[in-house]
Amino acid sequence: MTSGRLLMVLVLQLLFTVLGVAGQHPTRPRAPGVAFELTPDYGVAAIHLKGGTFVPIARVQGSPAYQAFMRKKSASAKAEDSTLCRLLAPALDRLPSAFGIDIDTCRDADVVSTKALLATLKTAVESYLGTNICFASLSLDDIGDQHQIDVAQEALQALHLRQVLPTVRGDKPVVVAHKPDASPGLDETPSIILALDYSLHWFNVGLYTSSEGYVDPVDPLVSGRKIDEEHQLDALRDALRYLFDHPPPEVNLVKDIRHLVVYGDDSNNSALHDLLAEVLDADLVRDARVSSSVFDGPSYTAAVMYETMDTVDFEMDVRSPSCQRRSKLYGDHSEL
Known about the structure:
Elements: H1 3-24, E1 33-38, E2 42-49, E3 53-61, H2 64-71, H3 83-93, H4 109-129, E4 135-140, H5 146-158, E5 162-163, E6 168-169, H6 171-177, E7 191-198, E8 202-211, E9 214-217, E10 226-227, H7 232-245, H8 253-256, E11 257-263, H9 270-279, H10 282-286, E12 289-290, H11 296-309, H12 312-317, H13 321-326
Parallel strand pairs: 1-4, 4-5, 4-6, 7-11, 11-12
Antiparallel strand pairs: 1-2, 2-3, 7-8, 8-9, 8-10
Helix pairs in contact: 4-5, 6-11, 7-9
Signal peptide: 1-23
Keywords: Signal
């Protein structure tokens, strides 16, 4: 055999080997990351596409029932006590959404109102993408309220959507998205980020540590939000003063806070910034990173979901076969 023919045979053998491996392990699709965030007043949807493109999809006002649910301290009485609901609801829940079966009469009022808001956000996402989605991520303003988490997750499941990530608190993605460009190393003292959510009807104050590029909440100083305070700016001033008067053990907040992140739907309120200049260090306020969009947090979460879906673990463990067959997003070699 001539050297030319031998080379051709080797090339063909290599080509067949590569094709065989590719047949066993097809290219993973890069489906969009879809993130929903629920606040006391409204829901937000954002998606992350290939190439790092973020798309703010929708901000949808919640119904009065939804807003009442997000403000109350106790769970609603469930409507699933009847024998019929106990017998039929689990089976009907497994049917694909394409059948159009509505079993909300077997759900409590909190789930129904939350499901309605998420359904509107889901419809907006699918309208933009031109096909149905099967996976989503979820964040809430108050991750400490287990009932709200349970209700939101049940509502998402009722829409036949699978969660890719654990439910996260809505403030952390914003803080991570606006964290300092440089953070202390392993042998250095972590810097502290003061995070302030200021919205029309609520506020929240929290502390995070930043070290080696990671951001972690300082519990319990990242606490639940304060909603519908009669004099919100005065209440915020009191909250900040209390924080500085009662710092975490072995922490000097005046010295150790190196970064300020301000976010929320009223983050650019001039009276708010006057208050911050009054209470906080002038350099801290001057160098603050102010989020100008309620989509910043969901956009970051959608990006994390996008990367998570491009893993073997996701393909093996998080599947929704019937939904994926109806969608144009999850077939081999598809990408948006």
